[in-house]
Amino acid sequence: MGCVASNPKSSQKEGSSFSRQTSTFDNDAMRVRTAKLSNAISILQAAPDSNISIFLASIELQSEDVQTLANTTNTTLPSAGLIVDMQNNNLANKAGRYLRMLISKFSRLQTLDLYLSRNCFGNDACRELAEAMPAVTGLKKLRILMEDNNIGCEGPKFIADGLTSLTELTHLELNFRRNRIGSLGIQGFMERFPRNNRIQEFNLDLGYGGIENTGCCELGTLVSKLENVISISFMLERNDINSEGAAGLVRNFGKLNSLKALCLNLARNQISVQGAEALAFALGKVPNLTRLVLNLSEHRIGYGCAKYISQSLSYLVNLEYLDLNLWRNYIGYDGAACISDSLPELHNLAYLKLNLGHNSIGKEACDHIFNAISQLTNLQEIELRFHDSNFIDDQNAENIALCIRKLKNLHRIGITLAENEITSKGTEVISQAIKSFEKLDEVTFDLDLHLLKVDAFSEDKTTLVSYQRL
Description:
Elements: H1 8-46, E1 52-55, H2 63-70, E2 81-85, H3 93-103, E3 111-115, H4 123-132, E4 141-145, H5 154-163, E5 171-175, H6 182-192, E6 201-205, H7 213-223, E7 231-235, H8 243-250, E8 261-265, H9 273-283, E9 291-295, H10 303-313, E10 321-325, H11 332-342, E11 351-355, H12 362-373, E12 381-385, H13 394-406, E13 412-416, H14 424-435, E14 442-447, E15 450-457, E16 464-469
Parallel strand pairs: 1-2, 2-3, 3-4, 4-5, 5-6, 6-7, 7-8, 8-9, 9-10, 10-11, 11-12, 12-13, 13-14
Antiparallel strand pairs: 14-15, 15-16
Helix pairs in contact: 2-3, 3-4, 4-5, 5-6, 6-7, 7-8, 8-9, 9-10, 10-11, 11-12, 12-13, 13-14
């Protein structure tokens, strides 16, 4: 087949059209950025006593724009709360300096929220933020989200230095997810973290951070400094942590007499049955827990994982909220039986989220678990994921339906049974059980990867009348 000669005039027109489109897009983006920046400047110039919120995310913000904000006023601003959202702008370290200048003008701040994820901030930006803290010593709540930047091991150390000025701080949330923190970064953070603190809620996200066992053990040492803590969250998924690190992380939990809420996300590490045993032993030493989130998904630990975690649940009789994710651990029938034995002891549960997907638990174990769940009559919300290779069939569906009918206080239901052996017959049985509820706020029902979302109610919003397939 011969070549077809291109038409120079046609190509010229196409190129011209593309240039016009690009120019229009750039102009639109510029107008959006200018408008949002002008609005932020107006808010700062008004100097309100109320909380200030500056939303400048995803607008190609430049460091010079942040400088303009910082120079808007030379007076001290009286606001008690400040939210700055500059996510997804490719801001560099220089912008951190101007953020420090801006924050320093809010000497009466009690809450500060900095949303700075998906930029190009590095260690220097962390140092600048830390240097702003002595100007806001009355802070009680601090949130710094810096996911997916260029922060290395020095960054957390600088932030910890800044915390030493915040003697009134009670709530702290730090997100260094998808940075290059490593165990060395955790060591520096722990060493500089103030011992005499009033922190009651501590949330730390280090997912995808290159954390090894030594770093995890340093976090365990850090826990001992949180003498007043009521709630802890450690997000540590996809790191290089094995059983030694898991044991080191939780070794001091028993010393936290005030701890009521705990979230541990250790998914996709290399924890073995010994690590699961260490975790369970530590959990058994905090019987006052009312809220537990534990994610051990994708470890392939086997039966021992469910065995030890179930044993710890027998000590946590005060739990009102349980989110347990053991997806892809191959716990089998025996592991599922352990879980079913422990659940009825949790009489105070109002919320249960249980993910046992991809565990080959089998038909009989499925019945045992739903029989156990049916005894938790105080439940108000359930989210149960038994999808993927658990061999659940229509007979199990009847037992699931019976369980649902017994839980009279439910107002939210989520059930995922995809990739099992349930047919339309089993689907109908469960559907009828769900429809028996007069009042439901939300229902999701997932079978064979076809999501059925129940959002059609009667006009008075009290009676479920139909399903919508998405």
